[in-house]
Amino acid sequence: MRKLKLFRAIIMGAPGSGKGTISDRILKRFNFKYAATGDLLRQNVKMKTPLGIEADKYIKAGQLVPDDLIIKCILNRVSAIGNDSWLLDGFPRTIAQAEYLWNFQPVESVIQLSVPHDVIIERVKDRWVHLPSGRVYNLHFNKPKVPGRDDVTGEELVQREDDDPETVKKRLEVYDACIKPMADFYRQLGILAEFEGRTTDEIWPKVQTYLEKAIK
Ligand code: AMP
Prior knowledge:
This protein is α/β, with parallel strands linked by helices.
C-alpha cells in the first residue's frame, strides 16, 4: 500500500456504475479512509436509528434523502476521520450538499464514472451486497467464493430492495438530474476527472493512472 500526501477525493457515478468496486480497488492500492453514504444509511435503517427510520421512506422510493439529514451524517463521519486522506462515495448528490462540503472541507479531486444506462440496468439485476461492509458482488463478473456468502466474513449476502429494475430506473433519472450541475460545479473548480467505459475493468486502469499522478 502506498503512503501518500493528504488527499481528499469524491467518487461520483450512477447507481450500478461500479463506484463501489472501483472504490474498493482504490482502497487496496492507496491509503484512503472511506465513507459511503448509501452504506451509512443502510446500516442506520438496519439498526432502526431515528435517521434510519426517516431515511428508509426515501430510499425505498428511489428518492434522495433530504439534505439536512444526510449532511449531518456525513460531516460527522468526515470529522471523525480527522487528518487522513479520504474518499467519499455517494456524497454529495446535490449542489447544496456540494457547496456545504466545499465550505466545510475542500477536496483535491472528483472522480466521475460514466457508464451507459443499458449496461447498468442489466448489471444491477445480478448485484448482491454484504450490508455490514458494503462489499459488492455480481453473479456474472465478480462472484462470491461461496454462493450467497461474503468472502471475508462468510456472512449472508442480500439483494438491495432498491435494486429492482423499476426503482433503478427511477434512481438513474434522479442521478441524471443531479449530476450535470454537480459536474459543472467541480469542473469550474478545475478538479473534475471524468472516466468513461462499459466495464469496471475498462475504467479502473485509467483511474489508477490518474491517481498515481495526482497524489505525487
Ligand atoms: P447508494 O448506495 O449510494 O446508491 O444510495 C442508496 C440510497 O441512499 C439513495 O438512492 C438515496 O435514497 C440515499 N442516499 C445516499 N446518498 C445520498 C445523498 N448524498 N443524498 C441523499 N440521499 C442519499
